[in-house]
Protein: Negative transcriptional regulator
Organism: hydrothermal vent metagenome
Amino acid sequence: MHPSIFFRKPDKKYNIEFARQRGFGTLVVNSVPVPLISHIPFLFSEDGTILEFHLNLSNPIVKMLNGETEAVMVVSGGDAYISPDWYDVENQVPTWNYVAVHVSGVLKKLPSGELHNTLSRLSAEMENRLLPKTPWEIDKMDERVYEKLKRQIVPISMQISAIEGTWKLNQNKNESSRKGAAKGVRELQIGSDVNRIADLMEDLPGE
């Protein structure tokens, strides 16, 4: 998380909604000699206190889940290069704007009987975003193929202990400079999902 208070977003509502909409993150678990990392889709519980996802049985993280295992899910959004020329103010420096949310908590393996529900809810969450396309459902799969697939997957939950957000959107600049930078972001398109970042810069969340 960024150390500057300008860019920290303590309001859990915005951080959860951002992470929920993104639905994909980087799971990081401490290990020796280096952390274990997996890039995975996930699902929030209705009340925002639990993350659910699944990992392949061969994933090294699964082998660590014999007790309480601390982890962080890093959820990144758009990002964009910011040229100091766009501020129309002297003595500025280049920077990079972005949104990122860190979800921390304790991992545990769920009973295998819960795997079907986890997979069904995760696919439904994504498929419903594709409406009016008819949603894909697990029932469309051959049962034997599906059962073979399930034997290779482990359902996992994270009991969330903390959610922190960095929303680095030039909040430390005046409105004119910030919107000038947003205009530059739209025109130059250097970064990822830059139009979304420009939208946020022009209309700061919660302000």
The chain has a mean pLDDT of 93. The CA atoms of residues 21 and 43 lie 10 Å apart. Strands lie at 24-29, 36-41, 43-44, 50-56, 69-82, 95-109, 153-168, 191-192. The chain has five helices and eight strands.
